[in-house]
């Protein structure tokens, strides 16, 4: 019997895609994150914090460091930082906690990005359920849109360049979900699957497919058909009516 081939290239066309997803339910809200891919260069996370919820979508690109290691490091630092701040701050607000944790995490991760070809795009936010407010940082991660209950779209532009050799301020933005509204976001890996080259097409797709799990079936099929092998990461935050 032939021995298994352990030296085959990572990006061989026949490599099968896999899907990982997680759903977090809070009174009046659902947070759903998913990661579909073959390279492991993306990651997602969602968890409870100070009575609210935090969500993260990360995509790493580059040759300076293994993209999988960088993506995992960002996710781990953000979660660990939030937990550490939560323990020492009395009566914390989820948005304040998450902002402090994010700034600390990005500062300590700066050493990982001394390589000119390594960058990380991300969307990281914190939901405060009583008010529906979401504090977020959007580091050029891809299409993101707030869909109002009447179907009106409010795209969320990037607030800074990807984390990497190009410096930029970590500006925290705020938006809000009213009952029936939802926040949808996906990495730029969505665009070639749609045969598009601008994020407007991605925003339109997200708005007409409100649940990430439903994206997955269509997108994984398209992924095999188009031979696009970039990791796809996506998230949805829905406030119920």
Automatic annotation (TrEMBL):
Hydrolase in keyword set: yes
Keywords linked to the UniProt accession: Hydrolase
InterPro entries per record: Bact_Sigma-Reg, PPM-type-like_dom_sf, PPM-type_phosphatase-like_dom
Domain of life according to the entry: Bacteria
Domain PPM-type phosphatase residues, every copy: 30-239
PANTHER family, per database record: STAGE II SPORULATION PROTEIN E (PTHR43156:SF2), STAGE II SPORULATION PROTEIN E-RELATED (PTHR43156)
Protein name: Serine phosphatase RsbU
Organism: Rhodococcus aetherivorans
Taxonomic lineage of the native organism: Bacteria, Bacillati, Actinomycetota, Actinomycetes, Mycobacteriales
């Amino acid at each position: 019997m032939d021995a298994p081939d352990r030296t085959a290239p990572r990006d061989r066309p026949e490599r099968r895609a896999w899907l990982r997803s997680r759903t977090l339910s809070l009174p009046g809200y659902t947070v759903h994150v998913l990661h579909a891919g073959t390279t492991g260069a993306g990651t997602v996370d969602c968890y409870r914090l100070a009575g609210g919820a935090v969500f993260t979508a990360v995509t790493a690109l580059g040759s300076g460091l293994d993209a999988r290691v960088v993506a995992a490091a960002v996710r781990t630092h953000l979660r660990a930082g939030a937990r550490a701040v939560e323990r020492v701050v009395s009566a914390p607000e989820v948005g304040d906690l998450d902002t402090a944790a994010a700034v600390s995490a990005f500062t300590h991760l700066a050493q990982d990005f001394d390589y000119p070809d390594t960058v990380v795009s991300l969307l990281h936010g914190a939901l405060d359920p009583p008010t529906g407010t979401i504090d977020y940082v959007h580091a050029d991660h891809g299409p993101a849109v707030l869909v109002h209950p009447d179907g009106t779209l409010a795209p969320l532009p990037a607030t800074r360049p990807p984390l990497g050799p190009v410096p930029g301020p970590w500006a925290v933005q705020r938006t809000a979900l009213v009952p029936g509204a939802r926040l949808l976001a996906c990495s730029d890996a969505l665009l070639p699957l749609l045969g598009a080259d601008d994020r407007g097409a991605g925003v339109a797709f997200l708005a007409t497919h409100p649940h990430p799990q439903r994206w997955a079936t269509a997108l994984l099929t398209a992924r095999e058909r188009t031979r696009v092998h970039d990791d796809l990461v996506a998230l949805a935050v829905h406030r119920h009516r």
